[in-house]
From TrEMBL:
The keyword Cytoplasm is annotated on this UniProt entry: no
InterPro entries in UniProt: MFS_trans_sf (IPR036259), POT_fam (IPR000109)
Cellular location(s): Membrane
Single GO MF annotation: transmembrane transporter activity
Transmembrane segments: 148-171, 177-195, 233-254, 260-281, 359-376, 396-420, 432-449, 482-506, 518-540, 546-568
Keywords: Membrane, Transmembrane, Transmembrane helix
Predominant localisation class: membrane
Record protein name field: Peptide/h+ symporter protein
Phylogenetic classification of the source organism: Eukaryota, Fungi, Dikarya, Basidiomycota, Agaricomycotina
Family per similarity comment: Belongs to the major facilitator superfamily. Proton-dependent oligopeptide transporter (POT/PTR) (TC 2.A.17) family.
Gene Ontology CC terms: membrane
Membrane topology: Multi-pass membrane protein
Organism for this UniProt entry: Cristinia sonorae
Length: 600
């Protein structure tokens, strides 16, 4: 590598062809792709790419995620009514008396919409901050498997506290119940966050296949592609998340018919599957060992590179960061024989940090996507409570989101994406994410229009329709059927197929081996940023402003999505290069493979 080789220029000219090594041929199509099992460039470009078979350990990890998500959504989906609505008349558990179940809404603490929104927003924020803790511990100390086991115990303790908080004797003391609920949210957040950072990369760790040719029984020669396989892995992984969320449908009926302590007890029992399945496959999982203080080294590289670029003038700082030789101060080759003792890394590691930072910029746009998602997690349930229920629990409708994803994942995995590949249409990760922003914005505009009709048809109009009651405290609802609110839930599900699943795939494939958990945590941290924005908007998060809130989120999603596509359209051409990040010796392969097998 030249002493002043420009990292940015390398990436901008990177393509499938110039990332491939060749051996002994002058014909570009005859060049062998390094790291493949004899696949040439010509074959790579001309043959159909197909996902590989997934190992059974990957499916075990998928089941772990299913159980963990059931336990989470089986509790979190009930927080809205549990915190917002008061105890139904004559109830001590939050259950609705049998005679009132056609229109009654379960509740317990009676804290109103704004406080409910604040607590739920904190729950979401904290849940997506704690993955950093789990990611760092896994990458530097315990490894992913051990980290998941330890945080599973923490999460189980949190679920037990939650069950206690909803006991009839505790609910009678509102402040005590609310305090225990917040404590449970905190403990579950620590445990679930530690699991989230590691279970996503662990499922992909189970696949160790290489790029290779294969002849199908039909005689067609195809390419078994790791990139396509990872796409398939995360489609099914996300389906497991939503199957768990859909499995929590029972929570809406249990809380309405039997009360909240039983509703919270069921997912606590389901969560016990997590450590059980992890122990079942203990000797079969592909486990990644901790690889040292890569986080500290990364920050040191960034600090050295930023030093000369920093200025009190932010415009000048931005220009300095954008120059072609920005990373040179962190490269050992810059110093020649006068290498500082603080530089303990090699040239390759600087390249990994450079390209990982560049790739991770993609995630910085996601808070605005998650703002749209947050509405289906709370405010749409409040909207549903103001509609004619016909015996349907108002917090049941939100389960259409995971159900729609479960239905759409096989459709996209087996029909849509293979057809696009067959037709040579490059629906790249960047394009998929952009499509997700557009669909999420459409979902919010649907919700805004529906909310306007709800104001017009509710007996209380825009004066808190969800709290509109008769003189004897019975719900007085709009004639609009509650199932009309299905649209935003289904559209957001489609948006998640495009954007959220792709973000998991992107975080895994673009991170160096030693930093996969931390990079995954960074991608998930964008949900926490979204929650922080939502928290700042709590004063506006009231029913009489829902139309403007939904409409604004929809327009913002379209604008930010378009800016995202403009900003990162060049990454489409760099996809192969970015997928090669961290496959070198510094990535942790030095002790795992023979030298001739290493990719540089």
């Amino acid at each position: 590598m030249s002493e002043h080789k420009d990292e940015k220029s390398q990436l901008e000219v990177a393509s499938v062809i110039d990332e491939k090594a060749y051996y002994g041929s002058e014909n570009p199509d005859d060049k062998i792709i390094e790291g493949s099992e004899g696949v040439t460039e010509g074959e790579f470009k001309s043959l159909r790419h197909v996902a590989d078979t997934l190992p059974y350990t990957a499916w075990l990890v998928v089941v772990v995620e299913f159980a963990e998500r059931w336990s989470y959504y089986g509790t979190a989906n009930s927080y809205g009514n549990y915190i917002r609505a008061p105890l139904p008349p004559g109830s001590t558990t939050g259950a609705v008396p049998k005679a009132d179940r056609m229109s009654g809404v379960a509740g317990a603490l009676g804290q109103g919409v704004q406080k409910t929104s604040a607590i739920k927003t904190f729950n979401s924020f904290f849940l997506y901050v704690t993955p950093f803790l789990g990611g760092i511990l896994a990458d530097t100390k315990w490894g992913r498997y051990k980290t998941i086991m330890i945080f599973s115990a923490v999460c189980l303790i949190g679920h037990i506290i939650l069950v206690i908080s909803a006991a009839p004797q505790v609910i009678a003391k509102t402040n005590v119940s609310l305090g225990l609920l917040i404590l449970a949210i905190f403990v579950i957040g620590v445990g679930a966050g530690g699991i989230k950072a590691n279970v996503s990369p662990m499922v992909a760790d189970q696949y160790t296949g290489k790029l290779r040719k294969e002849t199908l029984p039909s005689g067609e020669v195809i390419i078994r592609s790791p990139a396509v396989t990872y796409q398939s892995i995360y489609l099914f992984f996300y389906a497991a998340i939503n199957l768990g969320a859909a499995g929590a449908i029972s929570a809406a009926f249990i809380s309405r018919d039997h009360g909240y302590w039983i509703s919270y007890l069921v997912p606590t029992g389901i969560f016990c599957l997590v450590p059980g399945i992890l122990l079942l496959g203990k000797n079969s999982y592909v486990k990644t060992p901790p690889r040292g203080s890569v986080i500290l080294e990364t920050f040191r590289v960034i600090k050295l590179a930023l030093g000369p670029a920093w200025s009190i003038n932010p415009v000048k700082t931005y220009r300095n960061i954008s120059v072609e030789n920005f990373w040179d101060p962190a490269k050992p080759s810059t110093y020649g024989d006068n290498l500082p003792a603080s530089i303990t890394w090699d040239e390759e590691f600087v390249g990994e940090v450079s390209r990982t930072v560049k790739a991770c910029q993609v995630f910085c746009f996601f808070p605005f996507f998650w703002l749209c998602y947050s509405q289906i997690d709370g405010n749409l349930g409040t909207m549903a409570a103001a509609m004619t229920l016909h015996g349907t629990p108002n917090d049941l409708i939100q389960n259409l989101n995971p159900i729609s994803i479960i239905v759409m994942v096989p459709f996209f995995n087996y029909i849509v994406y293979p057809l696009l590949r067959r037709w040579k249409i490059n629906f790249s990760p960047i394009k998929r994410i952009y499509a997700g922003f557009l669909v999420a914005g459409l979902a919010m505009l649907y919700a805004a229009i529906l909310q306007k009709f709800l104001y017009e048809t509710s007996p209380c109009h825009d004066n808190l329709p969800s709290e509109c009651v008769t003189a004897d405290k019975k719900p007085l609802q709009s004639p609009i059927n509650v199932w009309v609110v299905s649209g935003p839930y289904i559209l957001v599900g489609l948006a998640e197929i495009f954007a959220s699943i792709t973000s998991l795939e992107y975080a895994y494939t673009k991170a160096p081996q030693r930093m996969k958990s931390v990079v995954m945590a960074f991608s998930q941290f964008q949900t926490a940023v979204s929650s922080a924005i939502n928290f700042a908007l709590v004063p506006l998060n009231v029913e009489d402003k829902f139309t403007w809130l939904f409409g604004a989120f929809g327009i913002v999603s379209w604008i930010i999505g378009t800016l995202f596509m403009i900003t990162f359209r060049a990454l489409d051409k760099q996809e192969f290069a970015l997928n090669a990040i961290g496959t070198g010796e510094r990535a942790g392969f030095a002790d795992e493979v023979e030298p001739e097998e290493r990719k540089v």
